[in-house]
Amino acid sequence: MSALPDLSLSYRPMRVEDLTSVGAIEQRIYPFPWTRGNFIDSINAGYVCTVLECAETIAGYGILSAAVGESHLLNLSIDSQWQRRGLGRALLLHQIDLARARGATIMLLEVRPSNTVGRALYADTGFEQIAVRRGYYPAHGTREDALLLGLKL
Question: What pLDDT is stored for residue 8 in this prediction?
Fold first, then answer.
């Protein structure tokens, strides 16, 4: 059973001041994390950059690009200490709501085939595989494909 009902969740726009915490989370959970510059570029580009706070702590974040009826979920991350509590699902559903509010009729995302937890979450939420992007992600000594998933909104 998810501990989500016991948590006080709030969402707000990501600020440059958040990037120290966001970067630390990236370093903890990914072998090939986004850089501070990737986040700054996303904020400056006008992407929908959101942080999820629990107990006044940044527990996760999402980066969404939305334009001309299409949205692209670029990053959805939950800090390791907050995982397995339903926060990933809550943040994903929030991102879907944000995309709909911006007029998107589809949401796209890439996921590593090795990310079984993420793939299960996306499948459970209704995402379907559209294509495979060969060699999309860096991997140790090689490249890993990406599964391109889509959800009609």
Answer: 86
